[in-house]
């Protein structure tokens, strides 16, 4: 069973690698074909400079305007694609490999101990990757394609030949956005002039029909993918997380169990308690099945990947704000479900806040002479 699973994974990996080479080549061929038909056959030979025997009047302004818009959309689409390829190849968002001799129970949890909350197992340990010999930061998934853990991994995209992750998701959305604008434009232009040509000249060239079919196919694909991806951004759930959306999550929250603190709460949901250092202990709680720990609000969810201002959403140079996050509250902003748990148990950032304000009060009372 394990052998056949391994074999299947290896076959899938090989297939994806082959597709990752073939699909970009097909895309390039498709762009070349669309450019030839739309610029040369439609704009130049049909609109700007029609043959005398066709009886058509030249329509230079229309031809040039359509040609310019086509070139702008093609350029934007190509730039988005190249930017996506560049980020995929230079910074796919992988987690460093640990020492091969590292073991879960002896590895240092230091990067997690500064956090108010993190996803953990039933013993309160962060999630461990046996293949990378390292801890998985929240939302990390081990990619069999790369053989590495990838932060906020979404999926392997054969069209771009790489992983869609925390670092590449924004550029993938831009690629899809300009993809559906470009293919939608090609589809409308070619369909309108094909209808006109068949009406006026009773001619239906096969080259035009092929482009209509290709443009319709890729428009439906890119538009569908764009809507799905944007929806997933709005609910802050990756494709990997979507597959386990009914799962419960164990979350380690900074704090002490209600029995030993002043907060009165129900202890039945506490999985365990972990003492990380004399001053830092965590209680482990479970979310309800279907709760998304990172669903803050649709607007903030989108902004965390696309950018804080709408203009940043279109900027191919700016990286996602979640990559600049350096907040001790957690690897990512916590959603309502987790915030409710924090308030209910006086733990996590609620506990961190009260400890921080207590420390501030203490330091002020020391500095003021009585
Ligand atoms: Zn891994």
UniProtKB/TrEMBL annotation:
InterPro entries, A to Z: Palmitoyltrfase_DHHC (IPR001594), PFA4/ZDH16/20/ERF2-like (IPR039859)
Primary location: membrane
Enzyme Commission number(s) from the entry: 2.3.1.225
Entry's Gene Ontology BP terms: protein targeting to membrane
GO cellular component, one term: membrane
Domain observations: The DHHC domain is required for palmitoyltransferase activity.
Protein name according to UniProt: Palmitoyltransferase
Organism: Lophiostoma macrostomum CBS 122681
């Amino acid at each position: 069973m394990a052998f056949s699973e391994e074999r299947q994974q290896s076959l899938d990996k090989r297939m994806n690698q082959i597709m990752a080479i073939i699909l970009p080549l097909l895309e390039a061929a498709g762009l070349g074909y669309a450019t030839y038909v739309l610029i040369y056959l439609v704009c130049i030979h049909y609109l700007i400079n029609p043959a005398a025997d066709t009886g058509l009047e030249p329509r230079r302004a229309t031809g040039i305007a359509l040609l310019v818009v086509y070139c702008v959309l093609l350029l934007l689409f190509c730039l988005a694609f190249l930017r996506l390829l560049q980020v995929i190849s230079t910074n796919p968002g992988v987690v460093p490999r640990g020492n091969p001799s590292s073991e879960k129970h002896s590895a240092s949890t230091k990067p997690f101990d500064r956090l108010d909350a993190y996803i953990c197992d039933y013993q309160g340990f962060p999630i461990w990757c046996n293949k990378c010999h390292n801890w998985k930061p929240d939302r990390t998934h081990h990619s069999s394609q790369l053989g590495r853990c990838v932060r906020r991994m979404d999926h392997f995209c054969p069209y771009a030949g790489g992983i869609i992750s925390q670092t590449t998701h924004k550029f993938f959305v831009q690629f899809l956005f300009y993809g559906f604008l470009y293919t939608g434009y090609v589809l409308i232009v070619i369909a309108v002039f094909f209808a006109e040509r068949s009406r006026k000249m009773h001619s239906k060239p096969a080259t035009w029909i092929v482009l209509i079919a290709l443009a319709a196919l890729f428009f439906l694909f890119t538009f569908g993918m764009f809507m799905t991806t944007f929806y997933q951004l709005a609910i802050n759930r990756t494709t990997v997380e979507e597959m386990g959306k009914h799962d419960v999550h164990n979350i380690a929250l900074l704090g002490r169990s209600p029995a030993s603190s002043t907060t009165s709460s129900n202890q039945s949901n506490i999985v365990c308690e972990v003492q990380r250092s004399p001053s830092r202990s965590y209680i482990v709680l479970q979310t309800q099945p279907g709760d998304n720990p990172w669903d803050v609000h649709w607007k903030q969810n989108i902004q965390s990947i696309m950018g804080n201002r709408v203009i940043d959403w279109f900027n191919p140079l700016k990286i996602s704000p979640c990559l600049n996050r350096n907040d001790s509250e957690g690897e990512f902003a916590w959603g309502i479900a987790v915030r409710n748990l924090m308030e209910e148990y006086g733990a996590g950032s609620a506990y961190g806040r009260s400890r921080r304000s207590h420390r501030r009060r203490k330091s002020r009372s020391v500095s003021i002479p009585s």
